[in-house]
Amino acid sequence: MTSQIPDIFLYNGEEYELVALDGERLITPQDYEMQPQMLHTACYRGFYSTYEIVDNGLFLIKMVIGEVEEGHKPIQGITPKLPFKESHGYPTYQGLKLITPFTGRIRLGKDFIEELYVHMGYQKATAYEIVLEFTFEAGKLVTMQDISAENAKKRGAFKERFETGDSVRSSEESFSLDIDME
Q1: Could you tell me which residues come within 8 angstroms of residue 167 by beta carbon, excluding any fewer than 6 positions away?
Q2: Are strands 8-11 and 47-54 parallel, antiparallel or unpaired?
Q3: Secondary structure class of 174 (helix, strand, coil)
Q4: What pLDDT is attached to residue 2?
Q5: Which three-class secondary structure state does DSSP give residue 101?
Q6: Fewest beta carbons within 10 Å, which of 23, 52, 77, 111?
Q7: Are 126 and 147 within 8 A, CB to CB?
Q8: DSSP secondary structure, 19-34, as one string
Q9: What is the mean pLDDT of residues 5-14?
Q10: Which residue has the higher pLDDT, 161 or 153?
Q11: pLDDT tens per residue, range 26-60
Q12: Nearest to 139 by CA among 180, 177, 106, 109
């Protein structure tokens, strides 16, 4: 198994990785009747996205989608840029500014601590120096809280549990973005 490519979130000019969420309605290719195939072992779900938190809203600005059986469909009137045949890129929707109807909480991490890397699934909040928690209502920012100090008290907890726990349960937990899974 391999560590998965996380969704990226831009906030105040900084880049963060999605480490956990509790809620619904982040945008997926399935919203546009596309069923992506696995890109590679680091992207089993077949796509990854970039969002921006700006103007008190959550916007999808870029999405990379692997192969889809019936072809790529437009998103917000935009068709994906296709890579050159010689490159190893994937079809990419760029220039999007699509309000995301997400309602719930999102945790974003920055400044990953390499020695806490887990070679499976998504990295957890406890492996990052900076962790911010955002609450959204239908895509509108309600609150933002820096929970880095609280997170530091749990630092490395997931990696330790992953390495010493039941391998099947640890594997399932590593692929979960559940906000309660730390």
Answers
A1: none
A2: parallel
A3: helix
A4: 79
A5: coil
A6: 77
A7: no
A8: EEEEEE----GGGGT-
A9: 97
A10: 153
A11: 999 999 999 999 988 889 999 999 999 999 999 99
A12: 106
Which value, to the nearest 10 degrees, does the dihedral of the CA atoms of residues 81, 85, 87, 90 take? 40
Cα angle value 26/74/104 (rounded, 5°): 10
φ/ψ of 80, rounded to 5, equals -75, 150
b/e 13-43 (16+ beta carbons within 10 angstroms → b): eeebbbbbbeeeebbbbeebebebeebeeeb
Give the pLDDT confidence score for residue 157 in this predicted structure.
77
- For residue 8, count other CB atoms closer than 10 A to its CB: 17
Q: How many helices (H) and strands (E) does the chain have?
A: 3, 8
